Amino acid sequence: MRLDVLTIFPEYLEPLNVSLVGKARAAGRLDVRVHDLRQWTHDRHHTVDDTPYGGGPGMVMKPEPWGEALDDITASGEGEPVLVVPTPSGRPFTQELAAELSGKPWLVFAPARYEGIDRRVIEEYRGRYDVREISIGDYVLAGGEAPVLVMVEAVARLLPGVLGNAASHGDDSFAPGEMADLLEGPVYTKPPEWRGHQVPDVLISGHHGRIRRWRRDEALRRTALHRPDLIERCDPGCWDRHDRSTLAALGWAEGPDGRFGRTPPAVEE
Ligand code: ADE
């Protein structure tokens, strides 16, 4: 997979040389190219921003450097890239979207600073490429570089051969499968006792059926506590008989449509 990042802070993308993404680059599974947007400016000050039309606070990124840079970058490869524009006003980034993007051969990221990029840049490239405006969460960051790091890591770890053990994304929170729709439960390693805290007996029992059930119960408890919205939106087919009684014990009530709704009191962690 090829990834281009166009930014005024190339050094912000240094973490792409580290750990999983760094190794995927070194192994040739990821071709990452970071570009300095100011290279496509023509004035002495390498200006990339200007005051907003209509007034208001802050600055807006000028269209010309983005246009010239994106033209050059997109002409430098085969086929059409997906253009990813991080913005708090974009569609939410989800595991499903990460999986979709991991199937694309080429992603170009356009992280903005200031109040964002002149809208005409989006309009221009929307006519040519698959353009995705994406938010990584309901909070406002100072720029799109950190969201690029987040998205690249989420996408890269789904690429074939990037995670050491292919089974390791099977149980991820939000991954499809038996534990789909549930957050991941707690995990333990040796020693069996640490500072007086024990590893739950069931995990040492060697009884795979019981271990699987325990893990599902813990995932259900954690989801009920941290993300009740995920329980509420799950259709009745999500739950087996044991889940139903676990949810009931956690204070959830089954509605007439088979979906669960929260009833006080709140559950304990
Ligand atoms: N830029 C600033 N905040 C952002 C967010 N939450 N998601 C994506 N890009 C952003």
* Portion in helices: 25-40%
CATH topology name of the largest domain, in short, is Alpha/beta knot
> Largest sheet, if any?
5 strands, parallel
Query: Strands of the biggest beta sheet: in what spatial order?
Result: 2-1-6-5-7
Shape: elongated
Rg, Cα atoms, Å: 23 Å
**What CATH architecture of the largest domain would you give?**
3-Layer(aba) Sandwich
Q: Span between N and C termini?
A: 41 Å
- Average residue pLDDT: 94
CATH superfamily of the largest domain: SPOUT methyltransferase, trefoil knot domain
Residues in β-strands, percent? 15-25%
- Bound ligand species: adenine
**N-to-C SSE string, H for helix and E for strand:** EHEEEHEHEHEHEEHHHHEE
